[in-house]
Amino acid sequence: MAPDVKVRQAFAATRALGIPDEENIGDGNGSTAGQDGCERPSKRLHLEKQENQVFVGMKNIASGDHELSTSSDRIVESPQRSFRDGTNHNSRLLHVQHSNTTKQTSSCHSLIKSEVMASRKQAIGDVGLGQTSIEGLPGKIRKKELSRAKTCSVATLPPMIEPTRLGHSEQYSPSDGTQTRFLKSATSSHADMEDKDDCPLSNDLSSCRGHINIASSPLGEVKLSLDCKQALAQRKFERPKLGAVLKFVEDKYLQSFEVVGSQFSVIKLLKDICESYLDLGCNPFERSGMTKSSPDIIGSVSNSNGIAGQNTKALSYSRKDSEISNSIASTSSSGPVNARRRHCSSVRKSRYSDLTDITKGAEKVKISLADDLGNEQLPAFNYIPHNIIYQSAHVQISLARIADDDCCSSCIGDCLSSKLPCACARETGGEFAYTPVGQLKEEFLESCKSTKVSPQAKDFVYCQDCPIERSRNESRPEKCKGHLIRKFIKECWRKCGCGMHCGNRVVQRGITCKLQVFLTEEGKGWGVRTLEELPKGTFVCEYVGEIVTNTELYDRNMQKNGRERHTYPVMLDADWGSEGHLLDEEALCLDATYHGNVARFVNHRCFDANLIDIPVEVETPDRHYYHLAFFTTRKVGAFEELNWDYGIDFDDLHHPVKAFKCCCKSSHCRDMKRRK
Ligand SMILES: C[S@@+](CC[C@H](N)C(=O)[O-])C[C@H]1O[C@@H](n2cnc3c(N)ncnc32)[C@H](O)[C@@H]1O
């Protein structure tokens, strides 16, 4: 069949789909001839809603003033798959094929070419394409026309070979008998996802950090292209080697233990490759291999924040962009570099949305991350499932310190099944705080609530020599402002005779709820929501962080430069009032800014929060150190945001941690009242 006939048939096919054909994509001279001399259909389907999504950059697609893709590395995939029905009949193997073409492109475009190897030879033979051609795609596209073709993400493919070769379950057959296939995405569900996730209806280009285009032809070829054009249009980009990108992605997945999780999707993987391509292209740290789990980076950042000598373990996030930016900003005057880096950050939408577990396997349950709004960076921090001493804190955990009446050594099995409270339960006000299903008993919860939130003077104790005031002004400390009296829970522990499944061991068993970190819409940054309904009194998580002394925390806060967003640290001051004089190293706090667990993302709500923090004694009867555990104050519905009352005094302008403008929307909002 002569080439022009094919083109005519393709036009007929597109017309049959209701697409006018006056906007020909050609070489600028009205020609639609490709480099192979074969005339090509010039139309693309406008299936995407997002502006400026163009299917460009295929190898050997060039225009007079706009050199398009020249990828030197090509990923060649060997699928055996029915794309229309979405079923993956066989595993797909990605491998990298190197070609010699290495022209720099003004838009970043990496090409993944997917081929059915068996039909490749036939396809090339039929259309007479050169070695590096992409069969069936427009040979030349002018810049002008690229912008005109802005909503395209699907290529119109020429009618060449009957589609049955690919085993496609569905193809478009225009009335004139021409067989032209249009594939928007590998599967219909993926196509939907692509529309919603990647390219929202808004014209906010920054929310599109790259785009995957997939097209197949009846020749038996499937083309996947990762289009990063928008993200890169405004800056200089150094194209990374595709091999390095693949290695980067592989490392990332291997480190996350999430090579194939329950939410695995090929499209998401491809998106990740696209993002990694961007990352490596614009981030010299990542390119030089300094990214993943890089204590070097954390170390330098930590030092800039006055925290020395940290030996961070490998549970660190690979993305340290905000901190890297900060550290560079403070140590270097290379403005353009910073500007570029900032821009790189801004184009990375939901970089963590593919992470199925922010805990990196540190918890029994996975905690996913959702960035529905896009563009937000997760703060750099190391996920730790248990508290860890930063430096000077005195936390003495030893069996010798646990007296016989501080444990229930004679218990067997589950303490909750015994008629009388065991020695541990006696420490909890003479009764078991937990029900057999691991929830707080209603009465206990209510009594905790009253001691926590009621701002009555009677609920406070006052130290004679308050560590907080001491750190503020050592020579002339002010009077203690008071510390809330708290009810403690005492859990059974190592010296107890009961087993690990004892009902009086809830907090120490860790998180069991399905939680998700998500980007809030009210300007609070990230937050935590439950993915399942939680009954009243359910243990959700504990607040985990570095155990720092009050003095260390004060020093940290003094050194913060104000631009940094940080978590709200908690004072372990529940027992301070009972002490005559607390040493500095005994006045402890938890700081989850750099090392913490999911609780570091739980936002504040004034007064009527759905979580309450309760002190829990586990390893030591010495109540300078204890765990702070969150329980639900009421039934919480699935997908509700979890929040707790930080106990902030918005009037206290001298507090070392600067209060934020509260957006909790509670009718009891203390900050709102204050502002009114
Ligand atoms: C423990 S962190 C919570 C996680 C935080 N939203 C994030 O994105 O990392 C505390 C910080 O979150 C923000 N935040 C928490 N609750 C808030 C609220 N009710 N209104 C406004 N900002 C809030 C403040 O910036 C605060 O310093």
From TrEMBL:
Keywords: Chromosome, Metal-binding, Nucleus, Transferase, Zinc. The keyword Transferase applies. The keyword tRNA processing does not apply. SMART domains: PreSET, SET. Residues 19-39 are annotated as: Disordered. Residues 407-510 form the Pre-SET domain. Its main location: nucleus. GO terms for molecular function: histone methyltransferase activity; zinc ion binding. Residues 513-647 form the SET domain. CDD domains: SET_SETDB-like. It comes from the Eukaryota. One of its GO terms (cellular component) is nucleus. It is found in: Chromosome; Nucleus. This is Histone-lysine N-methyltransferase SUVR4 isoform X2. It comes from Rhodamnia argentea.
